Amino acid sequence: MVDVWKYVVKMKAPSPVSYVSAILLIVFTAGVYKQLTLTQKTANNCEMTFMFEYPHFVEISVPMNRGKYNLYAYTEGQTMEKIKSMKFYGTPVIFIPGHSGSYRQVRSIASVNIRKMYHIQSNIKFDFFTVDLNEEYSAVFGGVLLQQTAFVSQCIDTIIKTYEHDYKPTSIILIGHSMGGIIAKGLFIDPLFDTNLVELIITLATPHRPLFLADHYMDSYYDQVEKIWGNGLDKPRSSFLSNISLLSIGGGHRDLMVWPCLTYTPHADINALSLAIPGVWTSTDHQCILWCKSLVKSIVRVLFDSAESDSDDTIYEWRKKVSTYHFDKRSNGKWFHSNLHPVTVKLNEPNVIEWNETYKLQRSISLEKGTAMPIVIHLPLVEKSLNYEMTAEAVNIDYHDWVFSCKPDYRSKKHCLFGTNWSSNSTISVSKFMKRRHITLKLPDVHKLGHSNLVFKIKNTKKPTALNIDMYEASDRTNEITWRFWYGVFNRYLLWNVNVFETIQYKTILHGWPDSICMHCVYNVHMVPIKCSKKNHHAVSKFIVPWTQGILHGITSDTYVEPLRISLENIPLSNATNDPYLQFILDPKCNYRIELELSIMDTIGTIGLKYGLTFPSYIGIIILLVLSNQFSQLANSTKDDCSIYHNSLPSIIRVFKTLAITICFLTVMQNQWPNINKPIGGIDWLGHPLKAMIFSSLLYCITNSFMYFATVALWMMMLFWGKAINELLVRFIMKTLRKNATLSDWILYGFGKLPIAVSMIAILISYNTCGTVGLIISAFFYYFLLCTMVQDCIDQLIYYPIIFFKEYFMKGEKPGLNLSLTSIHLHFSLFLLWLLICGCHLPCSIEWARNYHHSKSLDPDPSLITSLILNTCAGIMWQMDIPKRNLKFYAQLSNLCIAASIILFLFCQTALFRIAPILTLVFVVITLHQCFSSWIGVQDPTDNQVDAASQIPV
After folding, report:
1. All residues at 6 or more sequence positions from 935 whose CB lies less than 8 Å from its CB, including other chains
2. 433, 424 Cβ separation under 8 angstroms
């Protein structure tokens, strides 16, 4: 059998580049596997919400309902009877589920909201409604987006009409999970939709730019949404949306379905990640974001605080202040109100201990047993403090207002009667024990007010309390590194070596990271305590990106170490944006070594998941280049046989030459027409020549190695499992028709000899169900034909010794072995092309199967035209003996394949729905070339000899 393998396959030994590509494939597979198993291996720090009473969903009839969608009102406990009688009194909140999402996912937010309403005895009421969208796969099939949008719009009209006149709401709140957030934004596509009805939209793990474009319906839908909502650059938000608050919350690195770069949208009022939201500080996966208790409670607080304003701000301005407080810069309490931090505060209170401090720049006050009386600390500012900053850390200080600036009273010359409140500039910080707040003030801002003192207040308490103050010249505590992606690859890169006590604040500016080659590289920042004067210590690292909201935190303490994971998910909107930076709040009783380390496997996994969406286009490029070489071999009259797929692969040098030339065209095209290739997933480097060359070469090598192994496995299946597949089909026919094996063999034989019947059946099935189903049926039959062809060759080789013995020794004639593999090799490449087209349309078949009990056919069906064309071509091609020998225009076919591969590279890396039409066109041209061979004519061998050195460089 080994000799048979060598004869039939005739594979050359892999080149050294192939081994390198194989290593890259293994490394990328390991990195992607690590990312995919991240949620299982790391602890989920989210506490799950729980139900106080049994939930009920009351169905509400929606006029003009298509039947597969429904609307429900959520209720539990005391409100159940009122809801069943369709009596609503509060502000309606509509939950829109996303991809494969259930209407029951509203339970966590709705239940916590009801509990909070009872707990605080508030007059503010919310009525929760939830939409059942049949758990459709809206993230991979855009054909349902307009249908879902139209139904949600009808639901809004129905809900408004359900309220009695005295309680009729003036606005509603939309909460969308995953693709549900896009549906909420897409409501405004309809010019008849009343935009005044919606004032607040909260999106949870919503891909504001597509994860991948599976069909043109999704592309068109996102285009329409962007047209009215803008893109933050050259397209501003439409004026009629100016008073709608949009809050986008992402899950962070644990969400492997919708990455942080997709949840960011420049036209949102707030962009936040769960691991950066004060009080949450943990990453959530795609489903956990709906039931993470700390996050759900923050969302509920935003709803309640937004509904009641005691300020003169407009509703839009007030909601923005509330959401900024809860999702970005929470300075203290769980509830926000306009007088949370009064601008001016009286300082000379009775019965306090007043400390007049010296001009010492660093000081720490630790009260292990608390203090019986309030303490007021006066800190005179040095005269040369114009370039200075002050950072303070408050530990277990319960005052909302705790840091002020003032000018001493002219009579006492020491103390201040009133002070300006700076407490709103502070933010609570992540901590494993004791509540902590940090503030950093630029002292020139204090001097502008004419103030010369900083004042800190410590409330009387029995709890351990501490206050750490650090005043410093900004340049002494700030360093700036010009970013290089290889920092921390081999050894940890040293950022700071803090060998002095009492200092608490250091800062590192990461200059040039957005312009680096690997913007999506993942790094870990380690704060390693070198020496501590006390056992208990606590330090916090922060990552701040100026053009996005939220601060990422890392912790180092005596009992817990969590390195700060940083990755630049979003590029700045303009070149004038400040650089991202790291801030370190250290324990004043410790020395630290602060280091940066590249997380290689996390980086590889992240790049693999984000850039892996381009793999279908690279698979198509490789197959087309193989077909080009095979047609080039057929065009050579001195050799009328085309080699196996593996021997027809182009050389790596020629591939890189082709990539270099194509990338030049791609760069010019992206700069002139940036909307042709919209950024999807994490792919935003198509307009950068160096990045495009590096990542394109990397992706090509990985894809080429994958295809090499996949095709070897496919050949082995055809060689060793051909008879098994034949027997399996016979048994299937026997059980289906309940006939004997002889009839099944004849039926199978008939299909093999009359393949046009399979093609016609596939066309009928495509027309009546889904085009992809017809493609898949034909793909199975195509594979059966290949197995039959390979099995025939094997049979000839096995029986050749017997024939040779019979003919040579009995008749004296030496029989020849006329075994041509050209047809098998060409059909094998065309079969790979067919499989790729099936793969591009696979989401259609998934959605069709999902909705089969509602409708036998898929509507709309983007794969139908492709299926009809390909099955027609297959019915013609399977009847013929291809390739025809010595035909004209094989060289032109070779050039066509090269041109198609270039088009795939230019236009299909971010638009997967464009791959199938291009490959279908190539398939049609090949079919026409072989079908009309009698009209094309035979080439003259003397005039059309192609020298091997002059073959097309691909």
Report:
1. none
2. no
In residues, how long is the chain? 954
CB < 8 Å & 24+ apart, contacts of 47-54: 47/292, 47/293, 47/294, 48/291, 48/292, 48/293, 49/107, 49/108, 49/111, 49/112, 49/291, 49/292, 49/293, 49/296, 51/76, 51/107, 51/111, 52/76, 52/77, 52/111, 52/115, 53/77
Most confident range, picked from 133-147, 361-375, 641-655: 133-147
Please, are residues 206 and 177 in contact by the beta-carbon 8 Å criterion? yes
SS3 245: strand
Place of tokens 């009801």: 114
79-117 residue pLDDT tens: 677 777 788 888 899 999 999 999 999 999 999 988 888
- Mean pLDDT calculated for residue range 397-423: 82
Strand order in the sheet with 344-346: 344-346, 418-421, 403-406, 453-458, 375-380, 353-356
Q: Each residue of 145-157: b (16+ CB within 10 Å) or e?
A: bbbbbbbbbbbbe
Helix, strand, or coil (residue 772): helix
Whether 135 contacts 102, CB under 8 Å: yes
- pLDDT tier for residue 722 given thresholds of 50, 70 and 90: low
Q: Are 545 and 261 in contact (CB under 8 A)?
A: no
Write the CB contacts of 375 (distance below 8 Å, at least 6 apart in sequence): 352, 353, 354, 355, 365, 457, 458
Q: Where are the beta strands (DSSP E) in 150-209?
A: 172-177, 198-204
> Cα separation of 637 and 278, whole Å?
73
CA distance 733 to 742: 11
Q: What is the C-alpha separation between 871 and 782, in angstroms, rounded?
A: 11
**What is the residue-wise DSSP string for 858-907?**
-SS-TTHHHHHHHHHHHHHHTTS-SSPTTBTTHHHHHHHHHHHHHHHHHH
Reading the block at residue 661, the tokens are: 């030339």
Return the closest-CA partner of residue 511 out of 597, 594, 580, 595.
580
Q: What global pTM score does this model have?
A: 0.88
Among 362-371, 501-510, 673-682, 838-847, name the one with the lowest average pLDDT. Answer: 673-682
State the pLDDT at residue 89.
84
108-112: long-range contacts, CB 8 A cutoff, minimum separation 24:
108/49, 108/290, 108/291, 108/293, 108/296, 109/175, 109/290, 109/296, 109/299, 109/300, 110/55, 110/74, 110/76, 111/49, 111/51, 111/52, 111/55, 111/76, 112/49, 112/293, 112/296, 112/297, 112/300
Residue 19 has a CB neighbour count (10 Å cut-off) of 11
Phi/psi at 177 (5° precision): -100, 135
> Torsion over CA of 684, 688, 692 and 693, rounded to 10 degrees?
-170
Q: DSSP characters for 822-848?
A: HHHHHHHHHHHHHHHHHHHTHHHHHHH
Contact assessment for residue 245 and residue 323, using Cβ atoms and an 8 Å cutoff = yes
Measured over the CA atoms of residue 86, residue 87, residue 92 and residue 93, the dihedral's sign is negative
Tokens 């079908």 label which residue? 931
- Both tokens of 307, joined, read 């509904």
Could you say which DSSP state residue 566 is in? E
CA-to-CA distance for 512 and 173, rounded, in angstroms?
40
Least confident of 23-37, 344-358, 475-489, 534-548: 344-358
Residue in 193, 222, 197, 206 with CA at minimum distance from that of residue 94: 197
Residue partners of 662: CB distance under 8 A and separation at least 6: 902, 905, 906
Q: What are phi and psi of 529, to 5 degrees?
A: -70, 125
The H or E element that residue 798 is part of is helix 771-805
Nearest to 711 by CA among 838, 828, 612, 837: 828
How far the first Cα of the chain sits from its last, in Å, is 34
Peptide bond into 801 cis (omega under 30): no
CA dist., res. 138 & res. 843, Å (int): 10
